[in-house]
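Lecture notes, structural biology module. Today: joint structure prediction for complexes of two components.
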Amino acid sequence: MSGNRSLVPLASLSAERSDLLARLLDGLNPTELQWLSGYVAGLAAGGTSSREPAPVAHVVPSLAPLASPLTVVYGTQTGNSRALAERIKQRTEAAGLPVRIFRASDYPLKELKEERVLYVVISTQGDGDPPDDARAFFDFVRGKRAPQLPNLRFSVLGLGDSSYPKYCYISRIIDERFAELGGKRLFARGECDVDFEKPASAWVDEALEHVKRELEQQSGLAPVTPIRVAASSVSTRDHPFTAAVLANQRITGRNAQKDVRHVELSLEGSGLSYQPGDSLGVWPVNPQWLAESILKATSLDGSAPVARDGQSHPLQHWLTRELEITRLSRPFILAHAERSKDAAFKELVGNADKVQALLASHQVVDLVQQHPATWSAAELVSSLRRLTPRLYSIASSQKRTPDEVHLTVARVEYDSFGSRHVGTASDYLALQRPDEGSVRVFVEHNDRFHLPRDPLVDVIMVGPGTGVAPFRAFVQDRQESGAKGRNWLFFGDQQFRHTFLYQVEWQDALKKGALTRLDLAFSRDQERKIYVQHRMLEKGADLYAWLEGGAYVYVCGDSKRMAPDVEEALLQIAMQHGKKDRDGAQEWLDGLREQQRYLRDVY
Amino acid sequence: MSKALSDVERIKAQSNRLRGTLTESLNNPVTGSIAPDDTTVIKFHGSYQQDDRDIREERRLQKLEPDYSFMIRTRLPGGVCTPAQWLALDALSQKYANGTLRLTTRQAFQLHGVVKTDLKQTMQGINAALIDTLAACGDVNRNVLCNPNPVDSRVHAEVYDWSVKLSEHLLPKTRAYYEVWLGEEKVGGGEEEPILRDTYLPRKFKTAIAVPPHNDVDVFAHDLGFIAILEGGKLVGFNVTVGGGMGATHGDDTTFPRLADVIGFCTPDQLLQVAENVVKIQRDFGDRSARKNSRLKYTIENRGIGWFMDALESRLEWKLGAARAYSFDHNGDRFGWVEGHDGKWHLTLYVDSGRVADRPGSAYLTGLREIACIHKGDLRLTANQNLIIAGVAAAERPQIDALVEKHGLGAFRTSTPLRLNALACVALPTCALAMAEAERYLPDFLTKVEQRLTVHGLTDTRIHLRITGCPNGCARPYLAEVALVGKGPGRYNLFIGGDTRGERLNVLFKENVDEQGALDALEPLLAAYGKLRQAKEPFGDFLVRSALVPAATRPTTVRRALQQV
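The predicted structure, tokenised, for the full assembly:
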């Protein structure tokens, strides 16, 4: 993460090209730089050696700022919105049109009223919250201070999860609000479910068409011929790396009610690099027995070939490797009801609350078993969502284990309706055998959850349960780099004896000074439930002093209850120890967020 | 003594009268253990830090520290408690410990598996029941034993009373115990310790009172012992014994079990003075460098019993009387109902290895809880890990009998004599010293020996068999007719040739044998015993008479010219 790369210009490079190169290199991470050096070397050697078809990309035709480029703003929690926004940017650039891209938190809000063409790509979290990086943006747009936007042409792409009631809520509010402020919709808002690729691609295509029309009209510029850029040799979501499993160790005691695994994967030869705070995407495989249960309940033949999206696989393969069969979706419930003769069930799906309850309690197999319906293999395949990779916060630092990546995985396994139920990815990982298994993975960078660049800055980490994973990486990283800033961890779980994740490592870190303070909350060790936020409140004076001294506070873990409770604790602490009223405390916390000192990775 | 003091001496000296950093250790939330030095200090408070050794490796892989918990041992002179106290300890065990009670070979209760965060509440609960745990472990005089069920029942109250007084007389005077556990206001340390001084004793110190003809307390296995001398049903005084002890270390010839010497006689009112001065001699002359050689038995062995007597009598400023005649007929318990002189009845129940637990077919925990609820007398723990329901009016016997029947507590009637007299220490998984199984293994091993006894027509013989998980001797193995002393997992040293009176040490017969090795070694001896024994001849005596084992040491009675006058 070197901040200042000085460019030594080659004598043979024109000032313009030198400038271009500088722009190209600015902000690239080491992986990207490494890739680029290989790519350029490959070009020099007379062609690319990539296995992938070389996509067309990028480089802005002119450095002279255009009056009104396309602006793309994204708000993201897991990186999908960013990836899509980047795609729009690249394709716009490839089309030779000017474009600027902002993470919502970095977007200069006062420029909103000047925008001519604006695309917003934004996800909705949990029960209708914006992603952390888009809070200020969202509040501004929705709020009284938002300007009239008579000149704006816009469109919004929403990402979400249809198993939540406020599906794509944030994108809808922004879309409606822009229109209310006088903006003109270029084309209809897009909505993407967890299985986002197909609708997102369609929306991006449409966005390109519109932006071409709008900007070419504006400027009359002809697109320049883009240069060829090879695809990255580094693994990505769509081209994951196959990582060997080095270890799969249960790290909860035998009397624990949960099975939490410490999984170590080899990255040797992958060229993958990550920072503490980044996530690892894991492509899971559904359990064979579960696919078979679905086949049995639907009386379908697993060996029958079925085509979808230009691919053909046996049904069995679709169910285990391509489609989501543990998570239900709203559209699938409706499609299933259509095919069912179960009148009561058909009536039930008309009730939103009941559908919501169904989503929370049922898996696909439960539905097909409890409410039989007639499916054809092709219909079933086209009605189920695409299997999506699961993101796990990385629990290791490459400074300590350069060729490894470690995960902390809570195995989801329970009995329901008389049969065993599992979470696809956690079960898949928990069943991996060390030195035998392998897992398809990719790194998902999370710029908004990285350690402070300044090694002297103090860090407060709140990570109950498996939320502690990134903090293992943080502490390892700061220990290895000799960072002098203090590190304070709040950890909590059910019982001290059985679920104190990485206990001996924390003890060792305390002994060595790598961890300055450790406060623990074990909810089931006493009558009264004690959680991390209670420990934070108890230590409120110190905690406030750390924050006033410039500390960063990181929160990782459950988004539904823990994260709001921790946020409330921070507000209470500011009120009590900072002598602020509630608004003042809120302002203080917003300030921390804006300074990117209050960072969350919650799910 | 030029040798460096053992580290435990440093810990004691720096402990600020046994406070150490216990309070800080108890408040450290990051570990279930206490600071290393505090693991020594806490022993003086009646507790050991332990961990579940069965899952130590499993937890290491799980990146979890060992599953630490604490054993708490009560100080219960003479093993006597009230039914209310029994119920209190039972309830504490259900709430904070592993749900069982362990009756020890030194007439104490042990609670196992109390986690650090529950220690204080458990200690407070025990004290609320008017029992303490002070000096139940550590380098002090520990729980004082006395015969809980003498044949001449008239003296029990008196002898028991002396055991209580003796125990209290030798207790540390520090307030640390009350500050750490019971929230007493701090006096800050520096209390006077007139008997124990700054660094307490060099090593543990064990005291017992026997009432002939029974030697159930194994008086010769103790640092200090008193043998009650009765005349016409009245206690006239005690023979004094010193320098007994069981502990040894494998492969170290400087360590050995030793029977106490009988050094003379004192009257009851002289007992505390004698005890205090024996303790003071050990305090001043015991080895504080090598803890393996610190017990009083080595002090006496190294300096001679004559030196010891001179030292004692010069401190007493009077001479002990000549030892009186006494005789022991056995060191087991008297099972079943016996009637006392006052017409009250005492029922001795067999408790398998002293472990009070509910098992299929024998619900000792539940059964004894129900008995404690209706019982009006007291309950007495024996030095053989059994339990006496004492002081039952004749009219109330049927009620007790019914509960014994209902809950399957009748093993004292149905078990073989071998089983009834067998002892085992706790050993694995909690004891840190254990090298092999003991309590958990005893029932299986007994079954196998019983099969051999049946073959040789010996089912009704009362062979004393004891198993310990290490050579330190908690179940007094070196006095048994047959003993297994743990050497490694599944491996034991086999000792044979003790007697059934606690008066003769056994000898090492086979080293490092597994179960089959032990059974094979015993087989020809049992076969010969079955064929050649004389009427009522115990197994150990048979072995000695047949010269199958060398006659080992017996307790020595020290006689000096002056006393023979």
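Point to remember: The interface with chain A takes residues 29-32, 55, 58-65, 67, 115, 117 of chain B (CB under 8 Å).
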